[in-house]
Write a structure and sequence with these properties.
Layout (H helix, E strand, L loop, with lengths): L10 E5 L3 H11 L5 E5 L2 H10 L6 E5 L7 H10 L6 E5 L4 H9 L4 E4 L4 H31 L1 E5 L5 E4 L1 H7 L3 H4 L14 H11 L5 E8 L5 E13 L2 E11 L6 H44 L5 H29 L6 E4 H18 L3 E6 L5 E4 L1 H21 L6 E8 L3 E8 L29 H12 L3 E7 L2 E9 L1
Parallel strand pairs: 1-2, 1-3, 3-4, 4-5, 12-14
Antiparallel strand pairs: 6-7, 6-10, 8-9, 9-10, 11-13, 14-15, 15-17, 16-17
Helix pairs in contact: 2-3, 5-9, 5-10, 9-10, 9-11, 11-12, 12-13
Length: about 475
């Protein structure tokens, strides 16, 4: 049973009207699963499910039963909005019943007498979607605890708020959902700010800026917000807003740093939102295909392994992107020991999907892959992400044929050199002297903040004790980060 070890975390509701058959089956499967609840008809099963709804992971049920049969039982479950996976067992060859099974999104169909290995094999495949849901739920819980975040529909009606959003506004989730953000509007906030915001959003552009709001108790607070349109299958479905509380900031330096991080965070949110849609869609398609093949008894071992390997890769990708995002939000953890290749890989992960969508090739020549650094890893990653994002935007804006970004890491006797090169045509002569100047931006049409490269230079030269320079090369520009060993 070694291959079914992970089923030890699964709780099953087993429904079988034959008490003899139920006892025989449970004797086997209770050694495999974490817990097995037994019901002898559909009505008993519904009562057990009601009592243990948050505990039961999967239902294995007979079709033909007294009091309430398997199909009617599943119909009740689905009408209640419960999507718990169901595997049906039956000794009857009923085509109409099978058709009904498919309509009810039942994940497996096993003929009696039950082949126990075949049953466990099917359950083992089905629980992949359970583990994916658990992983995504855990990540969503992290966001809900750590980020001032809200979502609205396309009309601006609030549909979701995080716990930090509730805390800073003083309103409960129930008071906010169904309202617009006008409930927080402060009398000192100029109408021109909202006009500028909606002008950007209705043009499918992201908006970033400071907003003064009023709490439920009447006091004011200021948030630096990034608001982005949300799309599903190219249709606008609403807007997301991610904020940082800047009320207590009292120095220009702190203000610049938080704005820079917020601007970069907004770009990361947009990237992550885009990155998550494709793998989540792919996971759903793979899961549906595997379930259909299982139901039709057409699934072979190679197809199963290929599907599971693909799902595992997508889940790892989702986990990595949200972990990097969370680390980015945290205050600096101080200096830490890390391998150079780790920081480069994490920076690439943030921009990888966006580059792939724009057909931008990312090439890495890591001559310092095994070199161990002891510095502020998060700050280094932020600096590289800022430069990579700047290069990616230049390539897209200039409609470069065969666009590419090269990342070179070189080890010298006293320093490490990280070079980021693009073929976007280079930096104009009149722009070059001002490239690291605060509030200078060539992205006026995109609502650029003019802080990204300024703060990148500040991070590298003040926080990392290094140097940052830029020069034009053949067909593009090259940024060089020099870090002392």
């Amino acid at each position: 049973m070694g291959k079914f070890d992970r089923l030890k975390s699964i709780t099953v509701l087993y429904v079988e009207d034959s008490k003899f058959l139920a006892a025989m089956t449970v004797r086997t499967i209770e050694r495999v699963f974490h817990k097995v609840y037994v019901a002898h008809n559909g009505q008993e099963a519904l009562e057990l499910l009601k009592m243990h709804k948050n505990e039961i992971d999967i239902i294995i049920t007979d079709l033909i039963m007294p009091v309430l049969d398997g199909i009617n039982m599943v119909e009740v479950i689905r009408k209640d909005g419960c999507s718990i996976p169901v595997v049906v067992t039956t000794g009857y060859d009923d085509a109409l019943a099978l058709e009904k099974v498919i309509e009810l999104s039942i994940e497996g169909f096993i003929s009696k007498p039950i082949d126990m290995f075949k049953l466990l094999k099917r359950v083992n495949t089905i629980v992949d979607s359970l583990f994916v849901k658990r992983e995504l739920a855990a990540k969503k819980e992290m966001i809900d605890k750590d980020i001032i975040y809200s979502e609205t529909d396309e009309n601006g009606i609030i549909t979701y708020v995080s716990k930090p959003f509730e805390k800073i506004s003083g309103y409960s989730k129930e008071e906010l959902i169904g309202n617009t953000h006008a409930i927080l509007k402060d009398k000192d906030t100029p109408a021109s700010l909202y006009k500028d915001m909606w002008s950007a959003l209705t043009s499918s552009r992201q908006w970033q800026g400071e907003i003064k709001n009023t709490r439920k108790d009447g006091t004011s607070y200021i948030v630096n917000s990034v608001i982005s349109p949300m799309y599903f299958r190219e249709k606008l479905i609403g807007y997301s807003a991610t904020c940082i509380d800047v009320t207590e900031l009292n120095s220009k330096s702190s203000e610049l740093q938080i704005k820079s991080k917020q601007a970069a965070m907004g770009e990361m949110i947009a990237m992550i939102a885009h990155q998550w849609r494709q793998p989540i869609t792919s996971i759903g398609m793979i899961s549906n295909n595997l379930q259909f093949d299982l139901m039709m008894d057409e699934l072979d071992n190679n197809m199963l392994q290929e599907g599971l390997k693909s799902i595992e890769g997508h889940v790892k990708y989702l986990s990595n992107t949200i972990d990097i995002f969370r680390d980015f939000l945290k205050e600096s953890k101080g200096k830490e020991e890390f391998i150079m290749t780790e920081s480069i890989a994490e920076a690439i992960l943030v921009v990888k999907e966006q580059c792939r969508n724009n057909n931008i090739a990312l090439n890495v020549e890591n001559g310092c892959a095994d070199y161990s650094m002891n510095t502020y890893k998060d700050e280094l990653i932020q600096a590289m992400v800022n430069i990579l994002t700047n290069a990616q935007e230049a390539l897209v804006e200039n409609s470069v044929l065969s666009p590419k970004i090269d990342i070179l890491c070189e080890e010298n006797p006293t320093s490490i050199h990280i070079k980021i090169l693009d073929n976007a045509g280079g930096i104009k002569d009149d722009v070059m002297p001002k490239i690291f100047t605060p509030y200078f931006s060539t992205k006026t049409s995109k609502n650029g903040t003019g802080l990204g490269l300024y703060m990148t230079k500040t991070i590298v030269e003040e926080n990392l004790d290094g140097m940052l320079s830029v020069e034009n090369i053949d067909k593009g520009a090259m940024f060089t980060i020099i870090l002392p060993k």
